[in-house]
Amino acid sequence: MAKHHVRVVAWGILLIAVVVLPVFQILSPDPQNNPTEEQLLQDAEQRILQIRRGNITLDFGVGNASRTLYIHQLTQAFPFGCDVFGFDEMGNSTIDQLYAQDWAALFNFATVPLYWIYYEPNQGEYPNDTYLHSIISWLESVNATPKGHPIIWQNPPYVPQWMASLNQTQQRAAALAHIDQVLNDFPDVSTFDLLNEMTHQPNTWLGNTDVQTWEAALVEAQRVRPSATFIANEWDYGDTGASTAPNPVTDPYYQFLSQVSADGYAPSAMGLQFHCLQTWYPVEGILSALDTYGQLRIPIDITEFLPCSKGIYNGGIYQGVMTKETQAEYAVRTYITLFSHPAVHAITWWDFANTAFYSQNGWDDAWQGPIGGYLMDSSGRLLPAYYEIYNLIHVTWNSTTSVQLDATGSARFTGFYGSYSASFDNVTTYNFNITDTTPITQQPFTLQEL
Question: What is the pTM of this model?
Answer without folding.
Answer: 0.91
